[in-house]
Amino acid sequence: MSAAVIEVRALTKCYGDVRAISDIDFSVARGSTSALLGGNGAGKTTTLAILLGLLMPTAGCIRVFGEDMSRHRYRVLGRMNFSSPYVDLPQRLTVAENLTVYAHLYGVQGVRKRIRMLGDELELSEFMRRPYRSLSAGQKTRVSLAKALLNEPELLLLDEPTASLDPDSADRVRSYLMDYQRRRQATVFFASHNMPEVERLCDDVIMLRRGRVVNRGMPKALIAQYGRDNLEEVFLDIARDTDIDSTHGQAVQ
Amino acid sequence: MNGSTGEWLSFRRIGAMVLRYLYLLRSSGPRLLELFYWPTVQLVLWGFITQFFMTNSTWVAQASGVLLAAVLLWDVMFRGQLGVSLAFTEEMYSRNLGHLFVSPLRPYELVTALLVISLVRTLIGVSAAAVLAIPLYHYSIFELGLPLLTFFFNLIVMGWAIGLIVAALVLRYGLGAESLAWVAIFAVAPVSGIYYPIAVLPGWLQPVAWLLPSAYVFEGMRAIMFDSLVRFDLMVKAAALNAIYLAVGVGVFLYSFRVARRRGTLLHVGE
Questions:
Q1: Is the residue at B144 inside a domain?
Q2: B25 lies in a domain?
Q3: Ordered domains of chain A (ranges, CATH)
Q4: Which of A202, B132, B134, B189 has the most CB atoms lying inside 10 A of its own CB?
Q5: Which positions in chain A touch B266 (Cβ < 8 Å)?
Q6: pTM to 2 decimals?
């Protein structure tokens, strides 16, 4: 089996004449935390959706745990999970009911114990009997994360994992994710606009612009390459298509 | 800690989805009320119409429960279709499809769960009306005996087939197509011979009627009620047609799911 958990080769997705992503290649190492960065419309969500098997590529191939996601995704879906503040859970069901349904879908053993444990760890216990629709945006984000951790996934795909969370809750969630990744030796791959978060969590960053990978590397290496102080400035350079002065490693307009 | 999720068919996953719909039903008084409301209103209305026709129609007078049996059986088909279409529409409302289909749930397991919850909803709604007919109008549909089971299953399967096609259209065109869930089945009502024999239809329309399993069921029902004759031949034809209808319904739904994966609509559902 390959050491890479995710392998993306020549991936292209077209919607009619529009190319959402074009000829993308990258791989994600087992046990790493990687981020997909890019401005709006860069192709992050499209790439994540193809990784999850929700969207079929026009061309190219994605392998997860060595399996072709176009043809054999059910062999690996039980080893992965996903959380996004932009994909809801059933609104009328309580938090406990939602987690129970998904625990059974993922074949979790000891459903009640697992839900109780996640409730404690993500500070959801007091909301367990409340309908999902009655929760605040931040609470919903935490419930979605609890759903994503039900099956203790080896590969965790996250879209904006701390969106809508206050700074304290966001920091706790980040710490929890780091701890989970270390404890489980899991691979975490996420899309985010929160650059300090990416700097703190990630070993590897893949930069997208207009559907193409334009750069990748460790956050510190990218900051140095662009001659910037932080990843946010690098992000702006890439999003605004700023060239790099190759002699001095400085971004120039 | 986790069990296998690679098996091609899992009763646990199907059970999880049925549980999801039962939780939903339990959480909403109006949804529960709706199950009983329409079958009961229909029953009361057609009960009074029957009482009127009993003294004004020799045809109805020959078999007093024919209109009540017809309305109850029609509701089996209608509830069966609604049970599938509305349960699927709930997933669109709650924007939950993205989570469902990154889980190991197969599309055909979702289909199975939709059929199971439709059966549960139909049994709850129609049984209540059927039992109510006994004290109100002194008519018991259970007097039809064992053939009632074949009528029930043939009609609910036809309802499922239509319900799956409606769900496929909602997946394809978004919640803007939701109203189809309420109106689609009425397109077949005039040619199903619910309240009158197929022979009443114009000659050119009768072959169309005989393409519908429901036409055979309602003719079979009248054969028992008017002639005390159990027409197994009609039930066999209905079942054979239903096998085709259900295969088409499941096929159309799975195809629309595949199209949704190509177009990316599983993540972006709405109007």
A1: yes
A2: yes
A3: 4-217 (3.40.50.300)
A4: A202
A5: 49, 54-55
A6: 0.90
